[in-house]
């Protein structure tokens, strides 16, 4: 079951390291990651997603 959020702009990871990394990303990268249907499930996947977003911009 996928997590549900009460606010589209609130994003919380269960892993503190992931949450910390995500919060340090620029807003436009956070927005791109939030827009994905499947959210990264690990810190490594989150870093890959952020790098993919950086390559687009």
Structure description:
- This protein is mostly helical and 57 residues long.
- The protein has one domain.
- Helix content is 54%, strand content 0%.
- The protein has three helices and no strands.
- The chain is globular, with a radius of gyration of 11 Å.
- The N and C termini lie far apart (32 Å).
- The mean pLDDT is 84.
Task: Using brief descriptors, characterize the structure shown.
57 residues; mainly alpha; 3 helices; globular
Query: How confident is the prediction overall: mean pLDDT?
Result: 84
- Report the helical percentage: 40-55%
The CA-CA distance between the termini, in Å, is: 32 Å
Question: In this structure, how is the largest beta sheet organized?
Answer: none
**Extended strand count:** 0
Helix run count: 3
SSE order in H/E notation? Answer: HHH
Number of domains: 1
Structural class estimated from helices and strands:
mainly alpha
Strand content: under 5%
Broad shape? globular
The unreliable regions are none
Using the CA coordinates, give the radius of gyration.
11 Å
